[in-house]
Amino acid sequence: MPYKGFGNENEVFLVGRVLRDRGIGFSTIEDSRFRNFRKMYKRFMTWEIPNVTIKATLDGQEWLATTDDEGYFEFEIKNHSFPKTDNSWQKVKLELLDKIIPNQGIVQSTALVFIPTKLVEYGVISDIDDTIVPTGATRIWEMLKTTFFGNAHSRIPFEGVSAFYQALEKGTDGKENNPMFYVSSSPWNLYDFLLELMDIHQIPKGPLMLRDLGLSREQFISGSHFDHKLTQVEKIFRLMPDIPFILIGDSGQHDAEIYLQVIKDFPGRVKMIYIRDVAENTQDKIKQITSEIRALGVELLLVSDTIVAAKDALSRGWIRQEDVLEIIKEKRKSEDS
C-alpha cells in the first residue's frame, strides 16, 4: 500500500506499508451500517508484514527499503535525477523482493510522487477532520460512531469545500499545478478510506500525512496531536523550500497554535491561515492567537463557512472569479439537496 509521496529536485519522501490484503474494496451508497463496520474493522485489524525488502524503481534508478515491525517502509531519496516534465506527478514502481507465501508471484504497485513544476503559485496544507468533513473530532463517541458506521459516500464534506479546494489547486492561471497536502491525526489505517472519500467528493488529490497507531516508529500513538501535525507540516515546508503556503484548519483542536509555531519556524513562508469555526467557547483563544500571528506579518481569518474564505482568497488575487461562482453554486446545491 504506497502512500502518495512528495519532494523537490534534490530529495523525495515516500512511505507505504506491506499488509495482507483483507479484500476491503470500494464502498457503495447502499452499504449497510453493518457492512461499513465490517470494512472498518478490517482496516484496523491488520496483518503487517515486517522485515521484508521493497525496491523502488524510476527511470532506471533503484532504491531499497526494509519494512519495520508494523509493515511500514520509508524512502528518503536524495540526489535523484527524476525526469523533468510538465507533469507534477511522477510514478515510482514498487516491488516486494521477499517471498512471503508459496507460489506468491510478483507483488508490485505504483506510487505517485509530487514534484512541483515552475508553474506553482503556492501550496495548500489542510486539516481533514472538521475542516473538510464534519467528524465531531472533539466529541469522542460521536467521532467513533461516524468513523465506524459511515462510509465514503455517507460522509459529506462541508458545503463548497470541493469547489474551493479545486479553485486553490488551479490558482489564477486555471491549471491544476498548486500542491495540496492533507495533514491529519487520523491513523494510516484510514488511508484508503480517505482517498476514496476525496475521490467521490472531487477533492483534489495530494499527499496525506497521517499517523501510526500503537507502538509506532516514533512513540506511542505517534505523540500528541500537536507534535504530530507540527512535525508533518514542517516536513512539507522543508521539502518544498521555495513555495509559500496557505494553511487551513479548524478551531476544534490546536490548528491555530500549530500554524503559529510554523510561522515562527519558517518566517515569510505562510501567505494566509483560514480556520473554520466549529467549536464553542474558542473565539477568545483564537482572537489572542490571531493577534500573535498578525504581529508576525500573517493574517488569520476565522470563518463560518467556505464562502467567506473563498471571497477573501479572491480579494487577495489568489483564485479566479469564475471559480468563486462555482463554489457558491456548489454550496447552494448542497443546501437544496
Automatic annotation (TrEMBL):
Transmembrane segments: none annotated. Pfam families: APP1_cat. Residues 122-277 form the Phosphatidate phosphatase APP1 catalytic domain. It comes from Belliella alkalica. This is DUF2183 domain-containing protein.
